[in-house]
Design brief:
- There is one protein chain.
- This protein has 615 residues and is of the alpha/beta class.
- The strands form 8 sheets. A 7-stranded mixed beta sheet has the order 1-2-7-8-9-10-11. Strands 17, 18, 19, 20, 21, 22 and 23 form a 7-stranded mixed beta sheet that branches. Strands 25-24-28-31-32-27-26 form a 7-stranded antiparallel beta sheet.
- Helix 9 (266-280) crosses helix 13 (385-402) and helix 10 packs across helix 11 (322-333).
- It starts with a strand and ends with a strand.
- The relative contact order is 0.06.
- The mean pLDDT is 94.
- The chain binds MU-OXO-diiron.
- The site of MU-OXO-diiron (FEO) has 9 residues, from helix 2.
Amino acid sequence: MHCIKKITKDILWIGASDRRLALFENVFPIPRGISYNSYILLDEKTVLLDTVDKAVSEQFFQNLEYALNGRPLDYLVVNHMEPDHCASMNELLLRYPDLKIVGNSKAMTMINNFFDFDIKESSVIVKEGDTLNTGTHTLSFYMAPMVHWPEVMVTYDKTDKVLFTADAFGTFGAINGNLFADEVNFEKDWLFDARSYYANIVGKYGVQVTSLLKKMEKLDIKYICSLHGPVWRDNISWFINKYKKWASYTPEEPGVMIAYASVYGHTENAADILASTLADLGIKNIEMFDVSVVHPSVIVAESFRFSHLVFASTTYNTGIFCNMETALLDLKAHNLQNRTVALIENGSWAPSSGKLMKEIFDSMKNINVLDNIITIKSALKSNQRTSLEQLAEEIAKSVSILTPIPDKEKIENPAMFTLSYGLFVLSAKDGKKDNGCIINTVTQITDTPVKRISVAVNKANLTNEMIKKTGAFNISVLTTDAPFELFKLFGFQSGRDVDKFDGVDYTEKSENGILYLTKYTNAFISARVIAEHDYGTHTVFIAEVTETKKLNNDVSITYAYYFANTKPKPKPKTEEKKKGFICTICGYIYEGDVLPPDFICPICKHGAEVFVPLK
Ligand code: FEO
């Protein structure tokens, strides 16, 4: 039975996924499977864009037959001749003998190399910029040699603004129902595989990928249809920017990857101490890998991600430990550049892995190997701890240069206070417990295909904890008639201490079972969390709107209105003057001569920066 997806009015995805294959290209572990994407354009002429791996050919032919609905197949465009995309070509020609095969001359040579059928009569050879009119669509062909094989080209449909990119923008991972990248949490669930696919499959060819990216800049692209993984139609620039970094061998993130090879745990111990010291020095982005446990492709992918790389290896048969050597040679083969590398060697009687690892990195481009190579003889001794700490300091300093801390002198709080905000009651429900808090951070992000909002919530708030647990919340949009008492009720006390909804007789439940206010409110919005991001003091929840209702035409309150009209004015000075600082947000007074710089207002949870001295 067919299983296809519509991309545009005339273009369908007719590919399939393989979740049984253990090793892609018989090399790379793919626990999440792989998709082989094939597309069909149904215009006055019918055009198939690439076929699929033989493992999924049965599904593919059912899809193709259904999509054609009895029409002949006029063209096959061959963007890439690797067998995971062309293995079904032989059978395709048997089924559709009048088919014309469109490809560049290198592809035609490869067809002759792979197959025995004669393509002389059926071949349409194209070169850079050539076009094929199919009725209402015009396809243009752009050569992309070595992304990933020499015959690779990409095809652009001017009518629907679709770019069929061959392996470029592909990723490991089967298509699990949702074809489009905006239908899944790509950054959380797919980026690891996308990076691994890029680094391991085309990472060696950064120059050629950059050249393709330059060609793409001249095209108006609304869809990216790769031969593997999700189709892109939203936020395409985010993925293109990842490609720009990977292709130029620019670190994707400041941070440290530590890969170690340890037979009896002593080298691992040094790696752990280094990681721990880096963490103490404030480095948050650290990943560690035992090269005997993870596949070398993981080391390659993560090396494309991080700015700083540490390799710690025992000496083995007077060389580098075998799994580490394989990983390092793989890095070299994939042309990794522009990284800072630190080395730790171990050897009980003749340590040499450090020197040998350095030789590999010295033969690569723009790899800065730090001079401080730590040598362990069997096990790390206390008198070596200082050297390891010095190495950690050197790495941490170098990482922090890439993540500069903003100069506080250049940031004036009054400028931040000019931002305009609304005010809202954010409510959630966990079991029988209802809770809510005042926030000013609701923003609509998208309108189509679904409405999404973002909400930033202080992590100290119980409501934050409840949303993290349940993934759902309501927003009650407050109006200018909301009294100060309402702000005190929901904003100046914790739901851990009181039941904030106790005695509030102006609530109803929306379909998600969460309370919203029916008074002092002109609308409510229900939402379901699809992503959350940790920003130290606050969590930013990204959520899809599931229900909304406009309750009346009252005017929404703004933060400025609240300060000017709702919040009581400071009481006249009494004779007995207190020494201390007042919170400009909620009026809480801290008594004392010095306000600790990390002080957090116990009422409204704002930091010391919003406090001013009492006058
Ligand atoms: Fe997906 Fe280079 O083949």
